[in-house]
Design a protein that fits this description.
The protein is an alpha+beta fold. Helix content is 32%, strand content 20%. The strands form six sheets. Strands 2, 3, 4, 5, 9, 17 and 18 form a seven-stranded mixed beta sheet that branches. It has a five-stranded antiparallel beta sheet with strand order 11-10-22-21-20, sandwiched between helices. Strands 1, 6, 7 and 8 form a four-stranded antiparallel beta sheet that branches. Helix 12 (366-375) packs across helix 15. It is elongated and about 165 Å long. The termini are far apart.
Length: 655
């Protein structure tokens, strides 16, 4: 080839496709490769290039939709957080937070030596969250019915009542109290059953824990360690935790304390501990110390209970009082009741008969007539009184409890033999006319406390009945001096004898020594009111006359004698007004007195209503009770025997 001759160039033809199976791979132009030039005149490719539409309209549509959605959220957010914020917050608080009352621990009641007579023990209020018994929660329709069937025998409540509490009319209610003040054993039984159901429900889809919504709030229940002892005096506490009788009712405010409150967040009926709570602590009630001596109370209650049963009587009472202070050492009545088990108590026995019964005292009231006669210098213990078998006064013919020939008695003998006729004759000397005598006697009865409240402030206490002297009927003018025609209660009767024993000064009876607050500080009760009724000389003379009732063989109270002690006492056997008919039926038998007679320390009064078996005379059935209780009290208080000889005043005289 010559130098001038140009090299021949080869024009590439169409590329041949690789033969099948040759393994040749057709190379595709990579990124940045120059496009293959299509030969001029070559036919156009069958796969035409697709041109996409503009995305801008679609983007605008999506943006608009997002804007509208966000705007809706913003509007709703403004409504919730600004416009209706308080309403929604309140609803949230209501559903999230629950409030409960924290019951204050009730104060205890003790005797004068600090021995418990009433106290509170741990208990639980059984509660429930009704929303946790719905079908939504339990996946069953009869959740309340199943729960009620399990709880009914444990709580002792009707199933229908429990169902109504677990399915209240208010569907949003989240709190129901199923039972108050249940023992820890009851709550443990429910809790164990609930846990057993929870364990089974965890492995068995067909089992629902129908007790999951049952809970317990700590509380307390009232217990009386001595059972029936002093039940009428103590009273009881009702299902709402309030005193419903006796001291429990009278001093309910002091004993109850002040309930607290707790408010906490909850979920599923349980407290959320991480959120915290607001709590106002409860203030415990004050402890109350009574003047009662438990041992003397026991002796009095035992004695009166046995005699009431033996005599087949309606009821009876014994009051023991400290003559120097007016403090009540015992106040027992029979039949009684057990405040721990009110379901078995007789409604007629649930009061305090010693303060609530009004009855005609009979001959025990003659001590007031004799005190008036002596104080007014109308007679002396040695004054001669001629007592006939019958005495006509006004529209009646009066007699003594036994037929007798004419008695020739001293005034002392009138009291010792308990002569109604002799008492009428003696009190007739109190004025120039019977009307004047009535006025004088009435004034002394009032000073002794007849017709007035005792001052104890006890619930249901009767002040007795004493009509103004101007309204005394013809018969009352002569029956009132020997204890018929007016009424008293047992504490008033005891107070009369304590007044004589205390040198003629009446001290208002007291039952509470003081209270002890939550701080442990003891606050004594106010000093009782004192009233001079008769002179000390008159009181000592009456005490000597009362000795003759017991010591002299002609006296009616010989069964009350106590070896080593001089005893002053008086028997009583009065016609009894039947509360059911308002007519006289049966008798009120009584005995009242104090010891030692020369240096009095203790008064004991006993009364029995409507004895129907054996004797009904006061000296026969109440005299032994007086002796039994008085002996026990003297030993308990370590009162030394009498050091002075008996007065031995004459009972009768020879005309």
């Amino acid at each position: 080839m010559s130098d001038r001759e140009a090299p021949r160039r080869r024009v590439p033809g169409p590329a041949k496709p690789p033969r099948p199976g040759s393994g040749a791979v057709r190379r595709q132009p990579g990124p940045g490769a120059r496009p293959v030039r299509r030969p001029s005149g070559a036919p156009f490719s069958a796969q035409a290039t697709l041109r996409l539409g503009s995305p801008r309209p679609r983007l605008r549509m999506v943006s608009l939709m997002l804007t509208l959605v966000l705007l809706a959220f913003v509007v709703r957010l403004l409504q919730v957080q600004a416009v209706d914020a308080s309403a929604y917050a309140a609803r949230a608080e209501q559903n999230r937070y629950v409030a409960h009352t924290l019951a204050a621990e009730r104060g205890g009641i003790t005797d004068r030596n600090g021995i418990a007579l009433a106290e509170s023990e741990d208990a639980y209020d059984i509660t429930a969250d009704p929303t946790m018994f719905s079908r939504k929660q339990l996946k069953i329709d009869d959740g309340p019915e199943q729960a009620a069937a399990l709880l009914s025998p444990i709580l002792g409540q009707d199933q229908a009542t429990l169902v109504n509490k677990l399915r209240p009319k208010n569907k949003n209610s989240r709190y129901a109290r199923l039972a108050n003040r249940q023992t820890p054993q009851v709550w443990k039984q429910i809790k164990d059953l609930r846990n057993a159901l929870a364990t089974k429900a965890a492995t068995d889809n067909n089992t629902a824990n129908v007790l999951a919504g049952v809970f317990a709030d700590p509380s307390s229940q009232r217990v009386y360690p001595n059972g029936e002892l002093a039940a009428g005096l103590l009273g009881w506490v009702n299902a709402d935790g309030r005193g419903a009788g006796g001291i429990e009712q009278e001093l309910n405010k002091q004993l109850s304390g002040k309930d607290g409150k707790i408010r906490y967040a909850q979920s599923g009926g349980r407290e959320v501990p991480t959120v915290g709570s607001n709590e106002t602590p409860a203030v415990p009630g004050s402890d109350v110390e009574l003047t009662i001596d438990r041992d003397i109370q026991w002796a009095a209650q035992k004695a009166i209970t046995e005699q009431v049963q033996k005599s087949n009587a309606d009821r009876g009472y014994v009051v023991v009082q400290d003559t120097r202070t007016g403090q009540i050492l015992a106040m027992a009545d029979a039949p009684g009741f057990d405040p721990n088990n009110l379901s078995k108590a007789d409604a007629d026995a649930m009061g305090n008969a010693a303060l609530q019964d009004a009855y005609e005292p009979g001959s025990t009231a003659k001590v007031m007539s004799m005190a008036a006669v002596l104080q007014e210098n109308a007679a002396t213990p040695l004054t001669h009184v001629v007592v006939p078998n019958r005495l006509h006064r006004g529209d009646r013919l009066f007699q003594d409890d036994v037929d007798h020939d004419t008695w020739y008695l001293t005034l002392n003998g009138v009291l010792a033999k308990s002569s109604n006729i002799g008492t009428i004759l003696a009190t007739g000397q109190l004025g120039r006319t019977q009307a004047e005598a009535n006025k004088v006697l009435y004034s002394y009865l009032r000073k002794f406390g007849i017709g007035s409240p005792t001052g104890l402030g006890f619930p249901g206490e009767t002040p007795g009945i004493l009509a103004p002297y101007q309204k005394w009927s013809t018969s009352q003018q002569y029956t009132i001096p020997f204890g018929q025609g007016f009424s008293i209660n047992a504490v008033q009767a005891a107070s009369v004898y304590s007044t004589i024993a205390n040198g003629g000064v009446r001290i208002q009876p007291t039952l509470v020594r003081g209270t002890k607050g939550a701080d442990g500080r003891f606050t004594p009760s106010l000093k009782p009111e004192e009233t001079r009724v008769v002179s000390d000389k008159t009181a000592r003379t009456v005490a000597q006359m009362l000795e003759s009732v017991v010591d002299d063989e002609q006296g009616t109270g010989i069964k009350a004698r106590i070896p080593g002690y001089n005893v002053a006492g008086k028997t009583g056997t009065a016609n009894r007004v039947d509360p059911a008919t308002g007519k006289y039926r049966g008798y009120t038998s009584s005995f009242a007195g104090f010891a030692p007679a020369d240096n009095p320390r203790i008064t004991v009064y006993c009364a029995i209503q409507n004895a129907t078996s054996g004797s009904y005379y006061g000296g026969q059935i109440c005299g032994p009770i007086y002796k039994q209780v008085m002996e026990f009290a003297l030993k308990t208080l370590q009162v030394p025997p009498t050091g002075a000889p008996a007065a031995n005043l004459p009972v009768d005289y020879k005309p």
